[in-house]
Amino acid sequence: MAKKSKRGTPRAGSNRAEKLAARKARQEAAPTAPARPFADLPAAECDLVALRAFIASATAQMTFAEGFDAANEADFATILPGAVPGIVRSRQAARWGERGAGSGASGPEKAGAGSGASGPEEAGAAAAGPDGKVTQGLVALQTDPEPADLAGSLAAALAWAASAAPGSEFRGGAAAAGGSGSRGLADIVDPAAPLEVVVYGDFSWWFGDDADVSPQVAAMLERANETILPTARLTPKSGIGAPWWVDAGDRAHLRWVRPEDEETVMKALARLHAAGRLTMGEGSRFAGSFRTHGLVVPVFDLDNEMHHEEWHDGLDALDAAFLEALADDSELSAAERSSRAGILGRQVTLR
User: Where is the composition biased (Basic and acidic residues) (predicted)?
Assistant: First the structure.
């Protein structure tokens, strides 16, 4: 019988063994990123997950936490040019889709769960200068490379964006943020304030008012615009979670980011599925669910001949059924356990 090779095992006391031991110690000592990176922002968590995971072109106006000193506006964005973590720019104080702007018949669509008219005096909005412009920081939720600690990376970028000069670009790291690495998201963003999400049909919002866009960049922008699908944020009567509708072409989908823990959501889905109530009505079908950033997202296929506004009644009916199922703390029946097993068996995880 041949002897087992020891080639892959470092000899005790060797330099390689010491290096492996040191690397293992560093890995064990490194802080583990939270499974729910946005859990400290309960009013915004579900929409942040959606903007991070599957929304193409949107910004989200946020409110600074009380006591946080900011010279600029700082808003979330889905993705920025070059997939960088953050930029700061100047823009007109009252332009549609931005703070201080009125609503209009065309242009980007306000989609957030927040209420009330926005204006320059709101928390998180910087005052306009003599030229009528404000300095705005934009912090991306989708970046390349992906950060190991999403919450920490976003906190550092927000702290930087709150005071950086127009034309600056954030490349990441607490040092670049002026030593703000000890701040968490809830130290910068008001945890009780919902986001005011603005959905765009293109990426023209990437560029400031006076930007000189080269032909190459214009061509890149046109290609990026072609990837955007019609998208809208719906609001259930309960106000719980973040249901997002998207028309994918052959069919539409509704992805409902839920704030409850996975076990609670799975039980509710199982009860509704077993009772034949996991539906938004005619033209809808429960397609399954996925996990992302610590939350569960049920998905429904929808008839894309119907406008997203036509699904409000179906959403409210499902919302009421969901609340009823969530309130049921009895043991699952055999049929409900079978439904849960089927739903879990088809579930995927998005990183």
Answer: 16-27
